[in-house]
């Protein structure tokens, strides 16, 4: 299983990557999550401009057998939705690169302290 060291993780199997500008971040689901869900057929997110609080549901992922909520790892505002999600299977094939869900404008960087490192996430999922 792929667990990139440069990302932070939640217990709900989302990842977040702060971009070089330091004010925005990409959010998606982990390789573990996509493998547990199986073949993803549809992804729906809230629209650009939606304000999120940590743990808010910002969308859903529909797989052949189940539907799962997507949870915001931090407070922020959705500033972009990944258009590649129109082909939802990209989440299975590239969860950390092409399959990101939303880009958020960050509000409080101190919230990162509550997120897990790659090593902590790996331990949580038993890798």
Structure description:
With 127 residues, the chain is of the alpha+beta class. It has one domain (8-107): Beta Barrel (OB fold (Dihydrolipoamide Acetyltransferase, E2P)). 14% of the residues lie in helices and 35% in strands. It contains 3 helices and 9 strands. It has helices at 31-37, 90-93, 118-124; strands at residues 8-9, 14-18, 24-29, 40-45, 51-52, 57-63, 67-71, 76-81, 102-106. The strands form 2 sheets. The chain has a 6-stranded antiparallel sheet. Strand 6 (57-63) and strand 7 form a beta hairpin. The protein is globular. The termini are close together. The model has no long low-confidence stretch (mean pLDDT 95). Its cofactor is (R)-lipoate. This is Glycine cleavage system H protein. The glycine cleavage system is composed of four proteins: P, T, L and H. The glycine cleavage system catalyzes the degradation of glycine. The H protein shuttles the methylamine group of glycine from the P protein to the T protein. Belongs to the GcvH family.
């Amino acid at each position: 299983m792929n667990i990139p060291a440069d990302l932070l993780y939640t217990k709900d199997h989302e990842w977040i990557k702060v971009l070089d500008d330091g004010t925005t971040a990409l959010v998606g689901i982990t390789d573990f999550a996509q493998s547990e869900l199986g073949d993803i057929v549809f992804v729906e997110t809230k629209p650009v401009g939606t304000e999120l609080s940590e743990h808010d549901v910002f969308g859903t992922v529909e797989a052949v057998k189940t539907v799962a909520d997507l949870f915001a790892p931090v407070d922020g505002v959705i500033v972009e939705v990944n258009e590649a999600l129109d082909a939802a299977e990209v989440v299975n094939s590239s969860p950390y690169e092409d399959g990101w869900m939303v880009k958020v404008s960050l509000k409080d960087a101190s919230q990162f302290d509550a997120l897990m490192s790659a090593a902590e996430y790996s331990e949580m999922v038993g890798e």
